[in-house]
Amino acid sequence: MQRRDFLKYSAAIGAFSALPLWSKAALAADRPALPIPGILAPDAKNSIRLAVQAGKSTFNGKTATTWGYNGNLLGPALQLTQGEEVTVEINNQLAEETTVHWHGLEVPGDVDGGPQGVIAAGGKRTVKFTPQQRAATCWFHPHQHGKTGHQVAMGLAGLVLIDDPESRALRLPKQWGIDDVPLIIQDKRFAADGQIDYQLDVMSAAVGWFGDTLLCNGAVYPQHANPRGWLRLRLLNGCNARSLNIAASDNRPLYVIGSDGGLLAEPVKVTELPMLMGERFEVLVDTRDGKAFDIVTLPVKQMGMTVAPFDKPQPVVRIQPLIIAASGDMPDKLANVPAIPATDGITERWLQLMMDPMLDMMGMQALMDKYGQQAMAGMNMAGHGSMMGNMDHGKMDHGKMNHGGMNHGQQGFDFHNANKINGKAFDMNTPAFAVEKGKYEKWTISGEGDMMLHPFHIHGTQFRILSENGKSVEAHRQGWKDTVRVEGGRSEVLVRFEHAAAKEQAYMAHCHLLEHEDTGMMLGFTVA
């Protein structure tokens, strides 16, 4: 921290401590303080140590077993620098296998941490890589096949902050946890005893695992006191299956300055910011008026995600500006984002996403049996017409369902392999195709015929979106991305891979609704 900033923020803390007791009480408003992940930078040997461990956390007055990196829940923010090699030593102290995937990092397949990068229970793994990409907010999380959803639900997630000279030169808010604030947003469901209530079953395989409690950095509706001025929020949708629609409770604008892969060319003003699972956005919010407000998520049109309390806006975090002024600014120009190159004559690939109709039918029925019609609020059911005819007043005759010439029946149906890409469920040992390193390719990801939301994520690259779900690309989504929206339409992305990925450590391309990923909607591919 520079000396003048240190003096300024020391003054801010002093001003806060000098507030009268009634003012402090108003500031607290019975809200917990927003937990801020600590910054973990490489040591003198350019090493970072991560322990994957179990712990205890308290939610709504009850104690639950949770998992975290170097702590009870979530993990530190790893500070990396463009062009500087880092060694990460991972110690898995859990009683089961896990992996650590570097989501958004452009690193070789052998250190990417996909489902082949298994760390045994009690085992260790060391990876070494040099981030060459632009400054960005990325994250790390498990990628254990069939168990990714469970391990993330238990609390395993952390941020990765990549720094570069271009971003350092800007006068953006940079004081971590003061005016540069991470918001890891997740929903959870708890059992009566307070434990995290996770199941991978027919319903969650179809619509995903979702909860009724919203957490921000692991806390329920916390509060953050910031210097009055420009506030930088680094947003991560860390939910297993819930898309978000971020806004300010008083409708003040959000200025999007960065997406998954780094800064945009210039700020983009929005009042609502839809976020897919796994996506990150950086936004600036003007708090110079000194008025308190909430960051909220508005109701979304996604199957199951309008179940109460999410049929109404839900608060994420309370923002309470202090009397001291902030020093950060919002530049007119942010970063150099090159024009999209011509796509004539490049290799094209087609990826068709599809859920087995039996899972679609059984999952929807289970959802309605549990939550009623509220679970379908705002949904267009036309896309599920093939199975709606088999529902009689909300009940299904499983015996009449015949798919692929085989009567699955509820007992014999294998939902663990019922989500597919190009007609195939994930096969760990057989990559789907080979990509030539350094060459652009155009990938079309289609959800036509399948009305589920699929946030599609590709490892090993930051790409550019050419069209998204059949529409032109919104301004704040025209920068570098690693996740694209596919929902009943088709999306086109321009990809290029600068690192190798062999068959034994192939890159993944998959739906980032984690229960879809865990039940087959994923493929591996090589790069050479």
From TrEMBL:
<dbReference type="InterPro" id="IPR002355">
    <property type="entry name" value="Cu_oxidase_Cu_BS"/>
</dbReference>
<keyword id="KW-0560">Oxidoreductase</keyword>
<feature type="domain" description="Plastocyanin-like">
    <location>
        <begin position="406"/>
        <end position="527"/>
    </location>
</feature>
<dbReference type="GO" id="GO:0016491">
    <property type="term" value="F:oxidoreductase activity"/>
</dbReference>
<protein>
    <recommendedName>
        <fullName>Multicopper oxidase CueO</fullName>
        <ecNumber>1.16.3.4</ecNumber>
    </recommendedName>
</protein>
<dbReference type="InterPro" id="IPR011706">
    <property type="entry name" value="Cu-oxidase_C"/>
</dbReference>
<dbReference type="Pfam" id="PF07731">
    <property type="entry name" value="Cu-oxidase_2"/>
</dbReference>
<comment type="subunit">
    <text>Monomer.</text>
</comment>
<dbReference type="InterPro" id="IPR008972">
    <property type="entry name" value="Cupredoxin"/>
</dbReference>
<dbReference type="InterPro" id="IPR006311">
    <property type="entry name" value="TAT_signal"/>
</dbReference>
<dbReference type="InterPro" id="IPR045087">
    <property type="entry name" value="Cu-oxidase_fam"/>
</dbReference>
<feature type="domain" description="Plastocyanin-like">
    <location>
        <begin position="52"/>
        <end position="166"/>
    </location>
</feature>
<feature type="signal peptide">
    <location>
        <begin position="1"/>
        <end position="28"/>
    </location>
</feature>
<dbReference type="Pfam" id="PF07732">
    <property type="entry name" value="Cu-oxidase_3"/>
</dbReference>
<keyword id="KW-0479">Metal-binding</keyword>
<dbReference type="GO" id="GO:0005507">
    <property type="term" value="F:copper ion binding"/>
</dbReference>
<dbReference type="InterPro" id="IPR011707">
    <property type="entry name" value="Cu-oxidase-like_N"/>
</dbReference>
<keyword id="KW-0732">Signal</keyword>
